[in-house]
Design goal:
This protein is mainly alpha-helical.
């Protein structure tokens, strides 16, 4: 059905549609190129920063003689809990009744 509509349209309208499609295509291509260039610049800056850092480390070594990490203090001992032994209410008596020495 769309084939009939395209062929039945006047030639100047099809030319306008083609021009519009070409304009949209060129806009998308331009946006793609712009995005790729921005990504490429970021990658290039990251690589350049890495190389510059490496060069600085090789040419100007920094010797740190002081330990920069501070050791944390020892934690305090916890306080002893207030523990009291329960009072024994049972009277003590021998387990075996009688003379245990004669066995």
């Amino acid at each position: 059905m769309s084939l009939l509509l395209v062929t039945c349209q006047p030639p100047d309208q099809t030319l306008e549609q083609e021009a519009l499609m070409q304009r949209r295509l060129s806009d998308r291509l331009e946006k793609y190129r712009f995005d790729e260039m921005a990504k490429c610049k970021l990658d290039l800056l990251e690589e350049a920063s890495f190389v510059a850092d490496s060069i600085l480390r090789v040419t100007h070594p920094i010797k740190i003689e002081i330990d920069t990490i501070i050791r944390p203090p020892k934690p305090d001992k916890p306080s002893k809990p207030g523990f009291t032994r329960p009072t024994d209410s049972v009277a003590l008596k021998p387990i075996i009744e009688g003379d245990s020495v004669g066995l």
